[in-house]
């Protein structure tokens, strides 16, 4: 292109992993900076998570002999539903404010945009979980700060955010995205939910590490599949947006 | 002896349909360096679809668009750094400040000297004083000026203006007119859509109108400044 040298003069489109990660970081940092000012996503998710824990506490207070029986389910149900509240804002806010086109017009790999969004969402989830675990400790007197529970929760969150961000992109142009996202997302999350509850129950029941690793393996495999599929689909999804 | 100007946008026999509706039919045009093409058309006539195709956001069903010698279909991701788009909505993050918005886009475009370029553009657009203010406090005109700065950040050879005069006050319009003249003098190819026939004629070397998916030439002999 005759004028390409002009654009090349002010840009230095570098290949390689470092340049790719810089673009991922730029997208993630932009989202986190905007969120720090609005507190739109984390505030909603955290408020829901703590309130839901209180409601579950009131509901099970008089009827459950051992809280360890219900806390694994409560933990993962709250993470699941609090997550849906935040995930639809990931691309929904970009669509509402018309900024998604700005991202798509930039010479950035679609997977870098996806990974940047995943990184920001992962941070929001971890903040909410950091508030939820003490809340469950206070309300149910169950200590979830066990290394394997934390590992399972982290791996499960990575998988959840991976698939949730992908589905949030897929549904972002739909006017009914707030109701559509949970409908399409929750069935896909079933294996993760079952494994998360299973892993947490095994730890709380002190059944030994031999029973822990299969659950960790399933969650790890789920994560690997999610990101492999996301990288295959992400360009196709963007074409539809 | 004069040398022929190089074509920067070449659209050949482009067709696009959504379901059964044929939005674009056999659309062809060329914009050479230093030339401005304006596109008119009623709402829903396909202007935005054509603009999205030229911006490498959407692929045509038939035909091809070339930016210089490069077909968009072969390198859509990479080719985007040669295109700057000013949309009728500003593509800005209202929670970020003016300078943070430009810094973010500068990182996406891998600018070599972002601070220098950002300051230059903010001063040109008369926004330097408000650089640290959140964009949500900007007026419509200020946002649109920042949007123009965002689109020109990477100094693209091809500039696409989608109803860029929407919401601009008189000063903003003057700024835009000056900017278009500057883009012309610097050999940029400009592809603009507008509802304003007089503005289209005053800016442009070629004016077309989209009707029923077909491109019709509009006479523009009274262009101002020529």
Description:
The complex is a heterodimer of chains A (241) and B (226). Chain A is mainly α and 241 residues long. Chain A has one domain. Chain A has helices at residues 4-10, 16-38, 40-60, 71-96, 100-105, 110-140, 147-171, 177-204, 209-240. Chain B has 226 residues and is an alpha/beta fold. Chain B has a single domain, classed as P-loop containing nucleotide triphosphate hydrolases (Rossmann fold), CATH 3.40.50. Helices cover 31% and strands 27% of the residues of chain B. Chain B is built from seven helices and ten strands. Chain B has helices at residues 47-54, 76-79, 98-108, 114-124, 140-152, 170-185, 197-203, and strands at residues 7-18, 21-32, 36-40, 62-67, 70-71, 83-86, 158-162, 189-193, 206-211, 214-218. Chain B has a six-stranded mixed β-sheet, sandwiched between helices. In chain B, strands 2-1-4-5 form a four-stranded antiparallel β-sheet, with helices on one face. In chain B, strand 1 and strand 2 form a beta hairpin. In chain B, helix 3 (98-108) crosses helix 4 (114-124). The radius of gyration of chain B is 17 Å and the shape is globular. The relative contact order of chain B is 0.19. The model of chain B is unreliable at 222-226 (pLDDT under 50). The interface between A and B is large, with 36 and 48 residues.
């Amino acid at each position: 292109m005759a004028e390409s040298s002009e654009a090349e003069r002010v840009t230095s489109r570098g290949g390689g992993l470092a340049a790719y990660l810089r673009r991922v970081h730029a997208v993630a940092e932009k989202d986190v900076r905007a969120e720090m000012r609005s507190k739109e996503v984390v505030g909603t998710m955290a408020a829901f998570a703590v309130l839901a824990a209180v409601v579950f506490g009131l509901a099970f207070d008089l009827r459950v002999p051992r809280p360890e029986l219900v806390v694994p389910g409560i933990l993962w149900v709250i993470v699941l539903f609090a997550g849906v509240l935040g995930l639809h804002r990931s691309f929904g806010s970009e669509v509402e404010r018309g900024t998604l086109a700005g991202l798509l017009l930039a010479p950035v790999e679609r997977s870098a945009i996806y990974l940047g969004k995943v990184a920001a969402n992962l941070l929001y989830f971890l903040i909410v979980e950091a508030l939820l675990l003490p809340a469950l400790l206070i309300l149910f007197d169950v200590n979830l700060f066990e290394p394997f529970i934390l590992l399972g929760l982290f791996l499960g969150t990575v998988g959840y955010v991976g698939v949730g961000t992908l589905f949030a992109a897929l549904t972002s142009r739909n006017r009914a995205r707030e109701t559509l996202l949970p409908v399409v997302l929750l069935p896909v999350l079933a294996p993760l939910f079952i494994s998360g509850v299973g892993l947490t129950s095994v730890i709380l029941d002190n059944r030994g590490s031999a029973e822990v690793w299969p659950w960790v393996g399933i969650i790890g495999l789920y994560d690997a599949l999610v990101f492999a599929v996301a990288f295959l689909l992400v360009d196709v999804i963007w074409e539809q947006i | 002896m004069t040398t022929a100007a190089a074509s920067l946008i070449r659209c050949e026999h482009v067709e696009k349909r959504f379901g059964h509706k044929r939005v674009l039919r056999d659309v062809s045009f060329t914009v050479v360096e230093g030339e401005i093409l304006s596109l008119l058309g009623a709402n829903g006539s396909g202007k935005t679809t054509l603009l999205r195709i030229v911006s490498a956001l959407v692929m045509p069903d038939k035909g091809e668009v070339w930016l210089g010698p490069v077909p968009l279909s072969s390198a859509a991701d990479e080719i985007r750094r040669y295109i700057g788009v000013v949309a009728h909505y500003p593509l800005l993050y209202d929670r970020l400040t003016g300078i943070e918005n430009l810094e973010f886009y500068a990182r996406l475009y891998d600018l070599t000297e972002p601070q220098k370029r950002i300051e230059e553009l903010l001063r040109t657009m008369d926004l330097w004083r408000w650089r640290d203010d959140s964009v949500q406090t900007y007026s419509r005109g200020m946002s649109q000026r920042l949007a123009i700065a965002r689109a020109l950040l990477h100094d693209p050879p091809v500039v696409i203006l989608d109803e860029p005069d929407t919401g601009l006050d008189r000063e903003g319009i003057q700024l835009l007119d000056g900017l278009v003249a500057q883009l012309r003098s610097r050999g940029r190819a400009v592809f603009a859509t507008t509802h304003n026939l007089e503005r289209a004629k005053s800016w442009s070397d070629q004016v077309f109108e989209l009707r029923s998916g077909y491109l019709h030439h509009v006479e523009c002999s009274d262009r101002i400044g020529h």
